[in-house]
Amino acid sequence: MAHIEPFRAFRYDPARVSPADVITQPYDKITPEMQEKYYAASPYNLVRVILGKQHATDHSGDNTYTRAAHSFQSWRKEGVLKQDGEPSLYAYWQKFTVPGSSTELERKGFIALGKIEEYAAGVVYRHEQTLSKPKADRLDLLRATRAHFGQIFMLYSDPSAEIENALASPGQPALEMHDEYGVLHRVWKVSDPRLIALVQDKMRNKKLIIADGHHRYETALNYRNERRAAAPDKGPAPYDLLMMTFVNMDSPGLLILPTHRVVHGLSGFSPDALRAEAGKYFSVEEADPTLDAVRAQGILRESGRVGSSLLAVMKDRVFLLSKPKAAGQEIFGDYSLQQQSLDVVQLHKCLLEKALGLSEESIRNQENLRYIRSAAESIELVRSGKANVAFLMNAARMEQIRDIAFANQVMPQKSTDFYPKLLTGVTVYALE
Q1: Together in a domain, 244 and 291
Q2: Whole-number Å distance between alpha carbons of 187 and 108
Q3: Number of domains in the chain
Q4: Which of 63, 206, 277, 403 has a 20 to 30 Å separation from 328 between CA atoms?
Q5: Where does residue 100 fall: left (phi above 0), alpha (psi -120 to 50 degrees), or beta otherwise?
Q6: What is the enclosing helix (H) or strand (E) of 221?
Q7: Rounded distance, CA 263 to CA 367, Å?
Q8: In sequence order, what E strands does 98-230 have?
Q9: CA-CA distance, 369 to 387, in Å (whole number)?
Q10: Residue 263 three-state SS
Q11: CA 427 – CA 157 distance, rounded (Å)
């Protein structure tokens, strides 16, 4: 079902530039401070293409997208970006420490081109909702550059790790670097036609779930449809394919982190009122108001063994919310029982919308809401008086994500955080 192909990637020439100076985090993880740092690191840093600075004088003939296209073409002509001589797959391994612990893991994947499929085809599945604004921005960049610089993070199931094992002895890496979070990234070029054919055959019966890159996948789908409409009689074309990193969802190196919710700016917020409202939907227990992030996560893990569990952390009080009470269509609308079982759905529908009265639109627009990966940072925002309440939760489990996706259902935005991120610029796929 999944069609993959090797390709001749453009890659930075290590004789011209240091990979650590030019390869970046994904565009949507780049803060203004990171953008400045990347600009200063090298005139060839990929941030100039994927997230260039806006100028006050920008117009239709000179803007972030036209400058991105110019930079990409210039770097190819200069040989800073060089195209590989033969079609290849690229083994991509990441060694990292689990945030907040000393546990070390290694996630093993491979980069290839994957055929872009409509969701209705039953090959590629999404698990999160998307927003229109990011897709419009990425579509303008794709139209201008006609290239893909980052990979879509795709999950496939392989309990016996046949594909990982086939790619397990690649020799000397073609790329090796640490990123700003201390993650070790290594890439090997795999050009053996027999090995490529083996991987293609093993992938042929797989169904794929988008872990990260929903907006970019749907952008590529829209671009493909746009190009097909302009040339309806044209056969298979480069825009029918998209650069993807494939990772085994059954691998012990796959790590999913929670993304906590921090609510701020509520003028009439009251801990007692929150407790009373939350009690309509959960069993509520007072917890130690001085607990730190480590203890909070321990409490969540233990309580979460038997069902949904959330912590509401305020300046001087902490509530443990567990044992969700039965709630019907009035609360969950058309959400299925699978969706209702997710901690993040319980949080959004029962607490953010009902207990605190936030509208779905305000949540989408993040008017009184911040998404924070770090439990410690979430707690600090509350205790410093910068927020009303932090809702901490456990991460969604892979089997929950799989079941939701394969049922053609979705989770709220920022429900999952697959760590670490795939770097952008490791390989580049040029359509022309």
Answers
A1: no
A2: 10
A3: 2
A4: 403
A5: left
A6: helix 214-230
A7: 9
A8: 104-115, 124-125, 147-148, 152-156, 175-178, 184-190, 208-212
A9: 9
A10: strand
A11: 24
Q: Which domain holds residue 14?
A: 4-255+419-430
How far apart, in whole angstroms, are the C-alpha atoms of residue 282 and residue 366?
A: 25
Q: Which two tokens stand for residue 165?
A: 């094992």
Does the residue 411 lie in any domain? no
Which residues on adjacent β-strands are paired with residue 412? Answer: none
pTM above threshold 0.90: yes
Q: How many residues would you count in the chain?
A: 432
In angstroms, the CA 110 to CA 164 distance is 9
Cβ within 8 Å of residue 313, ≥6 positions away: 291, 296, 378, 379, 382, 389, 390, 391, 392
Q: What is the pLDDT of residue 329?
A: 67
For residues 272 and 223, membership in a common domain is answered with no
Nearest CA-CA partner of 293 in 271, 260, 249: 260
The DSSP H or E segment spanning 133 is: helix 132-145
Q: Which residue has the tokens 């079902």?
A: 1
Instruction: Name residue 237's amino acid.
Output: A
User: Could you please report the per-residue DSSP string of 112-125?
Assistant: EEEE---GGGSSEE
Contact between 148 and 242 under an 8 Å Cβ cutoff? The reply is: yes
**Per-residue pLDDT reduced to its tens digit, 166-224:** 998 668 999 999 999 999 999 999 999 999 999 999 999 999 999 999 999 999 999 99
Quick one: pLDDT at residue 235? 82
Element spanning 392, H or E: strand 389-393
Q: Alpha carbon of 54 to those of 61, 69, 134, 359: distances in Å?
A: 13, 14, 16, 32
131 shares a domain with 88:
yes
